[in-house]
UniProtKB/TrEMBL annotation, chain A:
Name recorded for this polypeptide: Thiosulfate reductase cytochrome b subunit
Native organism: Paracoccus halophilus
CC terms in the record's Gene Ontology section: plasma membrane
Keyword Nucleotidyltransferase appears in the UniProt entry: no
Domain of life: Bacteria
Keywords noted in UniProt: Cell membrane, Membrane, Transmembrane, Transmembrane helix
Topology with respect to the bilayer: Multi-pass membrane protein
Cell membrane recorded as keyword: yes
Cellular compartment(s): Cell membrane
Automatic annotation (TrEMBL), chain B:
CDD domains: bact_SO_family_Moco
Segments crossing the lipid bilayer: none
Lineage, highest ranks first: Bacteria, Pseudomonadati, Pseudomonadota, Alphaproteobacteria, Rhodobacterales
Occurrences of domain Oxidoreductase molybdopterin-binding (ranges): 91-227
Pfam families, sorted: Oxidored_molyb
Protein name as it appears in the record: Molybdopterin-binding protein
Gene3D superfamilies: Oxidoreductase, molybdopterin-binding domain
Length: 288, 251
């Protein structure tokens, strides 16, 4: 039912799913997917770390068109007069001394900044350089997304491999997959040829919500692009809302990557990483 | 089919080499890093000039004004000359316009206020991330430049300011697309009052598609040039020279 369109690798792919068995090597990831995956891996690390440095320049988030120090911030990271670090969200305040707001750098110096130097690019406070990293790799990220989405529409990767089928969306099926995942029982043999429904849903939300959301909220923060695409401001509810959403979407992506890395480790890191380089994936055996 | 596989292998090889080589270059070669990190600014400038040369920045209503528009940068120039002008209400002050112009000129504050004015409610975005909405009234810069008349070699407009950081006077510059943009003003009023000292009395630039550090305050002189190389340290603005902010403000 999921015939592979990459006919050039026909020798390594089973005639149909039903015949695929555990231990067999199948063609799993197209070249466009693999190249984009690794480009993004590099770009995302750079964008995240330089983004945290940019956040450090003004560690407050607002809703609406405007927002500055005299206005109400819904999220704030800072240091108190008693020199403890804090994260404040709405009316909740958390003591984050050592990690956020106040922390010790690699030279043993205490610093009052939002994100610590191990998480930022560059390591010590430099808004100008962080912006150069961020606004250069934003192009890599955005153009990569555009190329991948075009390619995936064209070769039907999205419809074929990522969009869940109606049958998979039955609550019973989803519930079954959740239980299997919770027990760390991953699909074996022929079933492992395809993404399972939880994978499909998380990849889909990353591909059509989080990543495009990052790019569009980023564009919304540009005063020059506001002049060209004023509808972006309406879409996100103003520049400061877009900045808040940019931060939240980034948090969503970090969460996704953490779960993704955990799953790679649990499912067999050598096989998984190799498949994202060569495209070839060894189907897990039905019985271990 | 063999050819197809070979072509695919070459593509894969090129693609993965580019990713690995690029990452290694960024990590280990400062020259390569500098070259790559200038790309964002160049692409943004080129793209914006291509797709949105004359697009207007969004304008807001009175209801959208920030209740409290914060100041930043210098909020009180230290120079004796500025203080004397402040005491005399800028009555014997004049904006000088020179450089690559047909007629070097001087405009008193009254002369500027007598010219056709524009009022706009726009959002001010600091490079650090905050935004404030204010109402600005002033003379479109295009009028001043048209009166003085540009010489053919003119490419940039440089703003020389009365404030300084550690003895170095603030300056900024923009290209002629931004200079002649209808929303680019020399503002002398903010929120229906004379421009406060903290916001740049007597004149501040409003160049609405740019970040805050481009909105020069305390403007004393406008110079039209063919190059930015001979002003300041050559990068087109005080912060560009001192800490490496992008000249086009790159977003």
């Amino acid at each position: 039912m999921h015939a592979d369109s990459s006919s050039s690798i026909a020798t390594t792919r089973p005639a149909c799913d039903a015949k695929a068995t555990g231990g067999q090597v199948v063609f799993r990831h197209r070249l466009s997917t693999r190249l984009w995956h690794w480009t993004n891996a590099v770009a995302c690390v750079i964008l995240l770390m330089s983004g945290l440095m940019i956040f450090n320049a003004h560690p407050r988030l607002y809703w609406g068109a405007y927002g500055a120090n005299p206005d109400h911030a819904w999220l704030q990271i800072g240091a108190t007069e008693a020199n403890t670090g804090y994260l404040r969200i709405g009316s909740l305040t958390f003591d984050t001394t050592g990690v956020l707001g106040r922390w010790t750098d690699s030279n043993g110096q205490l610093r009052n900044r939002a994100f610590p130097s191990w998480a930022t690019l560059p390591k010590s406070y430099n808004l100008a350089q962080a912006r150069r990293w961020h606004l250069t790799f934003a192009w890599v990220f955005a153009l990569g997304l555009a190329a991948y989405l075009l390619r995936s529409l064209f070769n039907r990767h999205l419809r074929r491999d990522i969009l869940p089928m109606a049958e998979e969306m039955r609550p019973a099926h989803i519930w079954h997959d959740i239980r299997q995942h919770a027990r760390l029982k991953f699909p074996k043999g022929a079933a492992a040829r395809r993404y399972n429904v939880l994978q499909k849903l998380s990849y889909l939300s990353v591909l059509i919500v989080l990543i495009p959301g990052m790019v569009l909220t980023g564009m919304t923060m540009s005063p020059a692009l506001n002049a060209v695409f004023p509808w972006l401001l309406d879409l996100f509810g103003g520049r400061q809302s877009a900045r808040s959403l940019h931060f939240l979407f980034a948090g969503g992506l970090v969460l996704f990557v953490l779960v993704h890395l955990l799953m790679v480790v649990l499912a067999g890191p050598v096989n998984e990483i190799r498949s994202m380089i060569t495209g070839r994936y060894r189907l897990p055996k039905e019985k271990d | 089919m063999a050819r197809l596989i070979a072509r695919r292998a070459v593509l894969a090889g090129l693609g993965f080499s580019a990713i690995a080589g690029g990452t290694a270059g960024l990590a280990f070669s400062p020259d390569f890093r500098e070259m790559v990190l200038g790309t964002g600014e160049r692409l943004a400038y080129g793209t914006h000039r291509l797709i949105g040369r004359n697009a207007l920045a969004p304008e807001f209503t009175e209801a959208d004004l920030s209740p409290d528009f914060r100041t930043n940068g210098n909020t009180m120039p230290r120079s004796e000359v500025y203080r004397r002008h402040l005491e005399s209400g800028f009555s014997d002050w004049a904006l000088r316009v020179d450089g690559l112009v047909n007629t070097p000129m001087a405009f008193t504050l009254d002369a500027l206020k007598a010219m056709p004015a524009r009022t706009q409610i726009t959002r001010h975005d600091c490079v650090e991330g905050w935004s404030a909405i204010g109402k600005w009234t002033g003379v479109p810069l295009a009028q001043i430049l048209t009166r003085a008349g540009l010489l053919p070699a003119a490419r940039f407009v440089v703003f020389h300011c009365a404030d300084d950081f550690g003895g170095m006077a603030y300056y900024e510059s923009i290209d002629l697309v931004d200079a002649f943009h209808p929303q680019t003003l020399l503002a002398y009023a903010m929120n229906d009052r004379p421009l406060p000292v903290g916001h740049g009395m007597p004149l501040r630039l409003r160049v609405e598609r740019q970040l805050g550090y481009k909105q020069a305050k305390y403007i004393m002189r406008i110079e039209v040039t063919s190059t930015l190389a001979r002003t300041g340290l050559g990068k087109g603005g005080y912060w560009e020279d001192q800490i490496g902010y992008d000249w086009y403000a790159g977003i």
